[in-house]
Design a protein that fits this description.
- 2 copies of one chain form a homodimer.
- Chain A is mostly beta strands and about 675 residues long.
- Chain A folds into 3 domains: about 50 residues, no CATH class; about 450 residues, Methylamine Dehydrogenase, Chain H; about 120 residues, Immunoglobulin-like (Sandwich), CATH 2.60.40.420.
- Chain A is built from 10 helices and 45 strands.
- In chain A, strands 8, 9, 10, 11, 12, 16 and 17 form a 7-stranded mixed β-sheet that branches. In chain A, strands 36, 37, 38, 40 and 43 form a 5-stranded mixed β-sheet that branches.
- In chain A, a hairpin with a 4-residue loop joins strand 41 and strand 42.
- In chain A, about 65% of the residues are buried.
- Chains A and B meet through helix 1, helix 2, helix 3, strand 3 and strand 10 of A and helix 1, helix 2, helix 3, strand 3 and strand 10 of B.
Amino acid sequence: MTRHIPFVRLALATAAPATLALAAACSGPDPTAAPGTPGSAAPGAAPAASGDLAALMKARGLSEDDVTAALKTYTPTGKKDEYFVFASGGHGGNVIVIGVPSMRILKYIGVFTPEPWQGYGFDDPTRALLRSGDRAVGELNWADMHHPALSETGGEYDGQYLFVNDKANPRVAVINLKDFTTTQIVTTELIQSEHGATFVTPNTDYIIESSQYPTPLGGAYADFTKFNDSYRGAVILWKFDREKGKIDKAQSFAIELPPYMQDLADAGKKVSDGWLFINSINTERCWGGNLEGNPPLESCASQNDMDYLHVINWKKAAEIAAAGKTTTISDMRVIGLQTAIDEQLLTFVPEPKSPHGVDVTPDGTGVVVGGKLDTHTTVYDIPKILQLIAAKTYTGKDPYGVPILDFKAAIKGQCEIGLGPLHTVFDDKGFAYTSVFIESVVAKWSLADLKVVDKVSTHYNIGHLVSAEGDTVSPDGKYLIAMNKWALDRFAGVGPLLPQNFQLVDLDAAKPRVIYDMPLPLGEPHNAQMIKADKLKPIEVYKPVGTNPLTHEKDAFAVEGGKERIERNGTDVHVYMTAIRSHFTPDIVRAKEGDTIHLHLTSLEQAHDATHGLAIGSHDINISLEPGEHSNVTFKVPKAGVYPLYCTEFCSALHLEMAGYLLVEPKG
Amino acid sequence: MTRHIPFVRLALATAAPATLALAAACSGPDPTAAPGTPGSAAPGAAPAASGDLAALMKARGLSEDDVTAALKTYTPTGKKDEYFVFASGGHGGNVIVIGVPSMRILKYIGVFTPEPWQGYGFDDPTRALLRSGDRAVGELNWADMHHPALSETGGEYDGQYLFVNDKANPRVAVINLKDFTTTQIVTTELIQSEHGATFVTPNTDYIIESSQYPTPLGGAYADFTKFNDSYRGAVILWKFDREKGKIDKAQSFAIELPPYMQDLADAGKKVSDGWLFINSINTERCWGGNLEGNPPLESCASQNDMDYLHVINWKKAAEIAAAGKTTTISDMRVIGLQTAIDEQLLTFVPEPKSPHGVDVTPDGTGVVVGGKLDTHTTVYDIPKILQLIAAKTYTGKDPYGVPILDFKAAIKGQCEIGLGPLHTVFDDKGFAYTSVFIESVVAKWSLADLKVVDKVSTHYNIGHLVSAEGDTVSPDGKYLIAMNKWALDRFAGVGPLLPQNFQLVDLDAAKPRVIYDMPLPLGEPHNAQMIKADKLKPIEVYKPVGTNPLTHEKDAFAVEGGKERIERNGTDVHVYMTAIRSHFTPDIVRAKEGDTIHLHLTSLEQAHDATHGLAIGSHDINISLEPGEHSNVTFKVPKAGVYPLYCTEFCSALHLEMAGYLLVEPKG
């Protein structure tokens, strides 16, 4: 990428156009240019004036490399980013959409947490959606989102759906990428925490969610004295109905696992399609109790030299489940551990101490495991593993009878990476990139000979990596993002709570290097997916007018212009209201103390970006109404008074006058 | 700034160093460099290689101006931004902290809306803080934040506090900039909506909040038939106790105003210190009713050629309030309209149709008003206004007896701006910058001769502007941000709901121009403040260990290392827990179904950025625990079971093992 043309020759060659370009630049904004378009000089016409550059570089303390990085990431007004990154919002319980290479945040998608600015959780459909994700203990208004997964067709991202998980309160949500809207949340009491989620099979038949901290299955209680017998892990295979765009819970099933801490997971692809890989830690089966005379969990759980990579035959498991060889625990069909063993659904392969990342290679022949207390990545040879399983060539069994394969026989080899390898992603040239926690680097290594070829220095507490189309059968290379959890010294101080730091790495350069530091100021964005922007075909407005975003169909209560009205039925007041620049109709709502108001609100707009909002004072209501959208809002009016209502989006010059009143008369 | 050195001469002059610099660049990351530092070439050593530049510019379609813009905004890893922007989070109910010139989001500050990722609203102190902002109708979990205001000393930002408002549910919040934490929310039932908030007096004696949509004062009910007699506006002057860092409600007071729609406000400074200016729309006193046979509000409210600029003597008003000439309405001392007239606290000056922005000039001698249905900005002459008031030179009275000054006698003049002037900010060279809605430009004009000298093309639905230190007595110039509400065609498509678009304008350039487009993907960021970053002195960790962020004192329940314990008192279980890499002590909490758990949690960390989180599965609890922070969390355990608890921040290599269990035994 960085060709070094002799400087003087280039300079002379471009002197004339450069001068012209500068003259043009001096004439300032082109009146014919689109709004906000800064310049008018022709793209690539000539290098920028060295005089200006030298002065600017000096003034802002920029190095040669900084200038290159700036030009590789700066995206002028009106130019679109090449890739979308869908990053988990961590504890924010939402999804962060980032443009690459500009690293600008383009959107937040409300998922598990109410988001008033988008009206999410503030109208009836989204409130019901959030409540559908509550668990037995009670209402949930946050999540610990970790691993977003894009829907795939033939192992390629198809840009249709995004799936996300909740580690703290095991749940999975479905996001429709037509309008970047959450449409479903599913949960089960079978497990009480998870981590290996979400990961999809190559055609998105199933969405994988596997448990992390062992508990009695189904939400039962048992003391630690019964840990080995009563505590279990499980992996859930949520069946996805692409036609309906929904998870089909009835067709979903789970497999019981021993009470280890199952960790990350990945689905096989190509030659390994049909198989599933989950690693595990704490095969020591420690449960802590540091104030009860037990050793601290972190040391107790780090004694064994080897833990177990779980190799699961999910296609056969689906047949076993279909054959009814399951027990229903809480509301989930579960294949028991003994059945899984008897049917050869579950096999273990030793993996070096305390593994974390488990990533299937693009060609599907290998699984890369990073042992966080190790110095290697281990590359497993899936065809070999499948042969050994077929031949039942076991070296032993775990305490629960799960057959174990021979470590050496099951691997392609190991790569000496450095201290604390975690996660691995891939490019289009046969290289793997592994985050190395203790060293704070990304190690670039060759899948062919398992040798490190380069290391990229990153910031502290590096965790997951994401590369362009990286989890598909054909990664793009080009860009990689290191998701670092610490940011000290990187950005201006904002108090004790600092942002995370996403560092964009340029994989096209002769030497991969960090070209952008992006502070991530919400939640603990954990993992992400990067997809070509042109694979998505989002809609711009809702058609027909009156569409309900959750169903993408016209709402039964959609209101037509001219047919606005208020209907009272006892203490229920139905308000059929429309919004269009610059008024609501009706703009006055009259009710009596104690009434229940059923607001049916349709935006008549069909112009892109002509969003309205509706706030009703003191009643905790803010609705965001995109062009053509319909929303239903039910609320009580407990106290007499006069409450202004108004449009909360700056929609027109007379936006402030797009207002009205809710009048609540005292009783009798 | 853009000096045009003849290209060839510069090129030859720098050829040698350039070549050297390139050689250095090719050697890649400097192993001795700080983590994440991309390059090693010396800052400003030489312009980047023209060869690389030309190729890069061509490849990414960058113009000359784009290159300059990129180098003016790109901020390499480890380099700090020069300014902080505190932008309202709009309907997000939070504050967005942005670095300038990089336009990267550095932090979100939870204010009116729960923010699980920072534990805001999920522990006892912040839950109580949120609930202290509820209004009579019920619980509120969102806000429509509009105008942040930084605390001032002598008319300069002092970097100590930030104040924000809620238009929908009239409230004001105080944020401590020591740790970017919300510490207080105040509200009163006196008014039911507001807009002219928050604005501070030059020494932050008072924080101004003025109503928008008229209602009966104190939350009473009255029909529109009584609109002229029973509906009113009001301006509240919240007394700020800088010593305590809190608003003193008992020392605060309000002034009753006629039932117009009071709009934006600003405080006088220097020669006009002690005075307050609020503009108004809808002096027609329309209330809508488009389904009740009335004309739509937006046309009815736009009939008058002139509305009224409210000129208020707040220093004298404070004396009148102190003298007890007030009536208490709900919980607020109110100076009645007649008293305000009798005591000469309130005077009107006509202002051209439907004004919006009202901005006092840095020297305090002028107020600039933009009439959104006008083509001018009007510059009022405050000394003249004060003379006219002193001499009681009135031309008439409004229907409520408020004296009115002569328009022509009260102004310095008008500036022909263009269609739809809204808000005005200032630089250090005597220029004013006004957002022009219909034209989508920022007009640069001279305060000296009221002539437009330049126009900067921006994107659609331009609203507020913010300039560096712009609301102080000594603005910096340098940077201006146009806060545009629309973003269509600017960024990659993300469905019907688009981000906002903050456009950074370079005021140092020969011609001011847009140098960065920043998508703002949460809420409707409305207005902002821009302050020199080095004016803030945020803390890095909480000292002493066990500090409560809301009081900045050691919490009564702070836990010392070694003194962790669990104490049961009936059904109340007090858990004294500490957190340090990589365990909680105790890591097991045992309770019985129906118990109430009182968790007292102290982080023993004192390393910058060593944040821990605590999630308790299924119980809707996530706490963010900064180094040294103490938090108290009270919650019920309604259902028997085994619930994992764990650290939600990626704190160390053994972060996954920083976990434990909440065991809830079934009842006897």
